[in-house]
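Tokens as discussed.
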């Protein structure tokens, strides 16, 4: 197992050298070999997806993300990668479904709920986004990203009193951090 990871690591290194040498096809080839050698290793999938997105080849980026998920079923990091790729390629409905699968698989992940809330807000499901943010804050009450998103969402949905109450709560819990005061302003 360690030898496979080392081999995949060497292939990723060779891919980097190929890209540095201006040989993108070799770069892709080495990453594909790394995936074949170690299908559970996420790094080559991430690199290949990033390459295809940079090249604006969304179909291949999605194919690689789907392959990562097929090779790693039940892995929350892979679901996150798939959902992010779906979102980046404009497949919001698929990203929403994948983020829902992610929170079902990892119901104690505050980050998963934040990401679900983000896509819900983009799809104009403000109440769903608010519920997801509140779940993130139940899991991790001092999660600043979720606190900030909830304050902004409360302002967008016409709940300034709730937003103000949360900013004051943030200020009380974190007197030395300007986040609460900044949000209140």
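Sequence:
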């Amino acid at each position: 197992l360690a030898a496979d990871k080392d081999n995949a690591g060497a292939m990723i290194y060779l891919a980097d050298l190929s890209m540095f040498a201006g040989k993108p096809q070799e770069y892709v080839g080495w990453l594909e070999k790394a995936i074949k050698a170690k299908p559970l290793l996420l790094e080559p999938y991430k690199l290949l997806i990033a390459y295809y997105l940079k090249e604006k080849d969304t179909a291949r980026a999605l194919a690689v993300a789907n392959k990562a998920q097929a090779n790693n079923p039940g892995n929350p990091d892979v679901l996150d990668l798939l959902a992010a790729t779906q979102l980046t390629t404009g497949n919001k409905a698929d990203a929403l479904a994948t983020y829902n699968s992610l929170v079902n698989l990892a119901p104690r992940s505050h980050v998963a709920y934040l990401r679900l809330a983000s896509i819900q807000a983009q799809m104009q499901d403000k109440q769903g986004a608010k519920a997801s943010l509140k779940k993130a804050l139940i899991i991790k009450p001092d999660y600043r990203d979720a606190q900030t998103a909830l304050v902004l969402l409360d302002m967008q949905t016409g709940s300034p009193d709730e937003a103000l109450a949360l900013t004051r709560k943030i200020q009380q819990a974190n007197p030395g951090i300007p986040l609460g005061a900044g949000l209140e302003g």
